[in-house]
Amino acid sequence: MMQLTIIGFGNQARAWALNLRDSGFPVRIALRPGSSSESAARSSKLPLIEIGSSDFYQSDAVALLIPDDEQEKFLVTHGTKMKSGSRILYAHGYSVSRKSLEKKFPALEHILFAPKSIGTELRRQYEIKGKLGAVFSLEHVRGNKPETEIWLRTLASSLGITMGPYATTFLRETNADLYSEQGLLCSLIPYAASEMFRHLLEEGTEPELAYFECWHELKLIINAMIDKGPEGFFDLISPNALIGSEKGYQTLMTDEFKNRMRSLLNEIKSGAFDHEVESADVPALRKKISTRWTQDELNKTFLRINS
Ligand SMILES: NC(=O)c1ccc[n+]([C@@H]2O[C@H](COP(=O)([O-])OP(=O)(O)OC[C@H]3O[C@@H](n4cnc5c(N)ncnc54)[C@H](OP(=O)(O)O)[C@@H]3O)[C@@H](O)[C@H]2O)c1
User: Fold this and answer.
1) Which of 65, 124, 132, 136 is the best mutation target for the ligand 1 pocket, counting ligand atoms within 8 Å of the beta carbon and taking the most?
2) Quick check: is 92 catalytic?
3) DSSP labels for the chain?
4) Tens digits of per-residue pLDDT, 27-67?
5) How far is the CA of 194 from the centre of ligand 1 (A)?
6) What is the per-residue pLDDT across 276-299, written as a single tens digit (0 to 9) for each?
7) Hey, which CATH number is domain 4-168, 3.20.20.70, 3.40.50.740, 3.10.105.10, 3.40.50.720?
């Protein structure tokens, strides 16, 4: 079985490394000299090599599990020294679909293999034998596609993927991923929860009760949604929840709301969001959002209850 060299030991990389190790898939880790991830990577007991060593450049397959905005720079420094035909795996399509890396580094085989999970859950679901999905694309593979796909499917099952991997394209994976982050997972859910929490407190609700209603129950209800599916979920809920659900749906899902959601996708597809990404000051934005949540009563209650 062709060995995979994992670059970095961050969120995704750690989960990939540990899951593959435990499944017996041949894997090693490559870090840059002086990497802050070294002691964490060593604790995995996996073989560790240095990025830039001759051993590294001989890798047949590498997973580029470093931040998306570092990937092109990484290939500019190392890509042309890598073996021709080496497989480069991406866990997200962003840098290939937006920066045409397949055209800039044509000697490499650029492969999308995207587990649909944050790293911590990729590891946790593997350990508890839970459900994990993934998508892939071999659109930029010029070599033996059937053989590459067999290898990729073995990699997927060794990582703990139970749903798929299903075929897509770099572009579709990127757009769908950005849209779900913007329109649902990283915006609507946390900010609607915070808004509702604040309303309840203003009406005199105890913060602990409001916390359970607006935040902790999310996890429990989402478990039921995933286990039962949309139709099965609505079969489960009480009559009051059913009537309330319909009322909330009719009140909140207005045409204006739907159009605003759709506009997020339109801006992703037009490239307008890419310009925002390019001009963003990420450390400053992280600080601003962190300050917002530090001051948020929902967050303060979370910390108090979970301390
Ligand atoms: N976060 C998630 O769970 C998640 C979910 C889905 C998809 N993804 C995708 O997975 C990929 C990795 O994301 P991530 O969040 O896991 O990254 P991350 O945790 O931020 O990656 C950090 C690791 O990357 C290394 N690194 C950073 N820049 C490097 C460079 N120029 N050269 C060599 N090593 C470098 C760091 O090494 P040092 O210690 O040396 O700095 C560290 O080990 C991305 O494509 C992302 O879109 C991530």
Assistant:
1) 65
2) yes
3) ---EEEE--SHHHHHHHHHHHHHT--EEEEE-TT-TTHHHHHTTT--EEETTSHHHHT-SEEEE-S-HHHHHHHHHHHGGGSPTT-EEEESSSHHHHHH-HHHHSTTSEEEEEEESS-HHHHHHHHHTT---EEEEEEEE--S-HHHHHHHHHHHHHHHT--EEEEE--HHHHHHHHHHHIIIIITTHHHHHHHHHHHHHHHTT--HHHHHIIIIIHHHHHHHHHHHHHHHHHHHHS-HHHHHHHHHHHHHHS-HHHHHHHHHHHHHHHHTHHHHHHHH--HHHHHHHHHHHHHT-HHHHHHHHHH-
4) 999 999 999 999 999 999 999 999 999 999 999 999 999 99
5) 29
6) 999 999 999 999 999 999 999 999
7) 3.40.50.720
Predicted TM-score (pTM) of the model is: 0.93
Atom of ligand 1 nearest to the CA of 14: 16
Ligand 1 in contact with 65 (CB < 6 A)? yes
- Whole-number Å distance, alpha carbon 54 to ligand 1 midpoint, is 22
Q: Where are the domains of the chain?
A: 4-168, 187-306
